[in-house]
Known about the structure:
The complex is a heterodimer. Chain A is mainly beta.
Amino acid sequence: AQTVTQSQPEMSVQEAETVTLSCTYDTSENNYYLFWYKQPPSRQMILVIRQEAYKQQNATENRFSVNFQKAAKSFSLKISDSQLGDTAMYFCAFMKPRPIQGAQKLVFGQGTRLTINP
Amino acid sequence: DTAVSQTPKYLVTQMGNDKSIKCEQNLGHDTMYWYKQDSKKFLKIMFSYNNKELIINETVPNRFSPKSPDKAHLNLHINSLELGDSAVYFCASSPQPYRTGFGYTFGSGTRLTVV
Lengths: 118, 115
């Protein structure tokens, strides 16, 4: 079974700083998908960024980028120029490449609570 | 215009009661899910339906029964509620079969408190 580990329960940085959230995972699959989701105090789960394992290039979305190290099974999220609105729980998640009769299970890490201070 | 909508957003009820949470998506997705987020914020899948058919049923007590009247709706009924059922329940949907790996669209969650 796949497992996802986020080793940083909490992090705190000053506004405008850069912060990196760690994620490691365990799988025997060669191809898969990785995600970072953000959950602000509003509770809504918001997709931040997505990476396909067969792509060498790291995904980027504006101020958000990932460092995907396939051999090390590591998938960290970097937030540049952090803003107060980035304060949230961040979840790393893993998905197998092949759906089971159309359903694809997302396996989540424990989450990292990120606080951006003014 | 909400893509995945859940009702109610908050639910407070006594032990032993039966309650339902409703979920509807207007994205045209074929697959819908229920996830439970516990007090430590851990998210775990409970069920998945594809076009009204149950596909994934994780180790969930029989008191939890999902129902999908059509592919746009997935409701969760819980019998004989227990204190340990207190959690946030998320509904989600995803497109399939050819658009794999695009993640889910989540509803805003239902916070269930059993007293």
